[in-house]
Amino acid sequence: MNSTISATTATSAQANNALAQLCQMTTVVADTGDLKAIQQFRPLDATTNPSLITAAASLPENVHLIEAAYEQARNEGLSGEPLLNRTIDILTVKLGIEILKLVEGRVSTEVDPNFSFNTEATISRALELLKLYEAEGINKDRVLIKIAATWQGIQAARYLEEQGIHCNLTLIFNLHQASACADAKVTLISPFVGRILDWYKKKENRDSYPIEQDPGVNSVKQIYNYYKQHGLKTQVMGASFRSSEQVLALAGCDLLTIAPSILQELQQRHEHIQPQLSAELAKQAEPVDYVELDEGRFEEFLNRDEMAYALLQAGIDGFIKARDQLSHQLRESFGIGEIKA
């Protein structure tokens, strides 16, 4: 699935810039909830997460969406914590709908990260999000349900995919998570690049790595090659970039989700871009043995991988913190009282 950002954007910023070239070999996705940025770059798809939703909620132009979400939740007869949670879910969908007005493809909408280790709750909340979209006339095929790639989250995605609901498994930090996602036949995964680089820089007390040694880039390359070598249909969407160099090192990946600041940087680069990933190149790469996992082996491999274990938990904690920040903002804005234990 290849796409250009848009004819308008490519024309206005010279067709030979790095972004325009990248779009000829990779589906470029905007990693933002900022509607102005999405309108500027016109990506095929867009991804959001609790941090991006919280950031978007702080923008003055989105106040009307927050107020509408609160009124809708309150009209359901809710109060206290249930009212806050429902307001956040409705707001998340309303922002998703605004994004879908600006893109031709899909939006990724994340389930409450508090349920990352609860399969049943994740499924239930995912179905509620889809009901909100469908009530506004949005077909489920335009929504990717975004779930953290814990074992429990992957099993929730397995069930949802069996029901024809497409999922984006996020916070992928190693091959074993990626393998379990492919076994669950999820639509796509989001392996992180920048967070892996950050972890290794701190662990090894280094300021930088040559791009060919970048551990985040190489992790995504390994996953991509593994999928292509074994004929796995789940798509790979590289995420969490720190630089345009990291992005270009993964040119040819199925999808790449990129923040507006790096999209802007790519527009300003004009060197010739070569594909770094493809099904053909994967066949020529070092073979990666097929990995078969059950819950026990998944948890064993994850616990033995210090980086993946730490970053998965930190990512979930960070998304929970962002959702809590939005909850606090709503509590103050609408005078919603605390629930006493």
TrEMBL record:
Gene Ontology CC, one term: cytoplasm
Catalytic activity, as annotated: D-sedoheptulose 7-phosphate + D-glyceraldehyde 3-phosphate = D-erythrose 4-phosphate + beta-D-fructose 6-phosphate
Which PROSITE patterns does its entry note? TRANSALDOLASE_1, TRANSALDOLASE_2
Gene Ontology MF terms in the entry: transaldolase activity
Among SUPFAM superfamilies, the record links this protein to:
Aldolase (SSF51569)
Q: State its Enzyme Commission number(s).
A: 2.2.1.2
Keywords (alphabetical) are: Pentose shunt, Schiff base, Transferase
InterPro entries in UniProt: Aldolase_TIM (IPR013785), TAL/FSA (IPR001585), Transaldolase_1 (IPR004730), Transaldolase_AS (IPR018225)
The protein's annotated pathway: Carbohydrate degradation; pentose phosphate pathway; D-glyceraldehyde 3-phosphate and beta-D-fructose 6-phosphate from D-ribose 5-phosphate and D-xylulose 5-phosphate (non-oxidative stage): step 2/3
Q: Name a biological process GO annotation.
A: carbohydrate metabolic process
Quote the function comment for this protein.
Answer: Transaldolase is important for the balance of metabolites in the pentose-phosphate pathway.
Family, as annotated? Belongs to the transaldolase family. Type 1 subfamily.
Q: What is this protein called?
A: Transaldolase
